[in-house]
Description:
Number of helices: 9
Distance between the termini: 24 Å
Structural class: alpha/beta
Largest sheet: 6 strands, parallel
CATH architecture of the largest domain: 3-Layer(aba) Sandwich
Strand order of the largest sheet: 3-2-1-4-5-6
CATH class of the largest domain: Alpha Beta
Strand content: 5-15%
Amino acid sequence: MSFHDVTHCIFDMDGLLLDTESLYTMAYNRVTQEYGKTYGWEHKAKIMGFRSAEALQTIIDMLQLPITVQMFEDKLAAIYQEVFPGCNLMPGAEKLLQHLKKNNVPIALATSSSQDSSELKTQKWKHIFDLFNHKVYGGSDPEVTKGKPSPDIFLIAAKRFPDNPNPSKCLIFEDSPNGVQAAINAKMQVVMVPDPQLPKHLTKNATLVLRSLEDFKPEDFGLPPFVA
């Protein structure tokens, strides 16, 4: 595989840095099972990377639930308050972010979550999320008019670095097929760390697919290597 050297890194959050995807699945199922429906991988693969309202409307349509997005959100809010503050980092996330920061590689967060939702999930890891040069919250940022797979969120994240790098100089880290497509649409290389249960054909468009962030070799993209 040949990769192009990059100067900046942009990270998704849910399922990539934070182990929240299983919590989302549990929360959605608590609601859908009230209506005798099960939310499974065939639904999850379609909505990963979507902004909240868009994801919920898609689930309502797929499972033909007799509720509105607002009703769905209201039911989920209490579950989120209960489960999200305890979520953990994914393997390799802390080491990679600390390494890039220490080596003065500009890093940004680009998540489809809103700022409120993100702060609920990251409260235990504030010292890690404070490492980012800036954060783009797709769910609440007025400049992000279209969610993934549109490239908006990544192009805005790139533009907000002080030196406004060319998109080709930005490396995206993602776990979802919609996020990978957003990176491709932004003309950026993308490292995908998919959930092991994600069907393999949904990973084929990524620049590089890894089992874990622990397997990332920065030097492959012209970034400073880890020192043993």
